[in-house]
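Reopening this one. Same input as before:
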Amino acid sequence: MVLLFVFVGLGAVVFVLGIVGWAVYRGTQRARSTTTAVAPATATPTRAAVLPSVTRRVPHHPLSILDGCSPDDVSALVESIDQAISLGAPLYNSGNFAGCYHLYEGAAVHIERKLSSTCAGPTRALETGRTRAASLEGAAEQAWAMRDAFDGLTDVVERAAR
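Same output, byte for byte:
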């Protein structure tokens, strides 16, 4: 029964992240088609996105942050983060910094809700990441703040697995 709930929960995470990714992709496509439709014939072709330089602030969590987390919690955490990054990184790299940030933020909220109440450390780390990101001005900085929160959690999971 527990496995059924885990699989249903993981399926819901993948489904929600897929829907969010699709919505952001469609919005980006609409924006591009609108821009193309009204651009004068003499307009220069668009260039690749210029990515800003960033200073990473990946938190280094103690292994104890995973205290109270079941193996299913840890698995769901890592899989959800990986899914969010696989959808968000291409958005960021194409210059859609706000789309990436909002996808990461939504994924973090979803993960927080899905983790068991005993898995409080990662939930707090994600909340801290969201709070930090919201305090920043630019969408690129916000996206990186969320990515830092994700990377800090995946790092601690990798260290705990050794």
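So the earlier flakiness isn't reproducible anymore. For the record, The CA atoms of residues 32 and 38 lie 10 Å apart.
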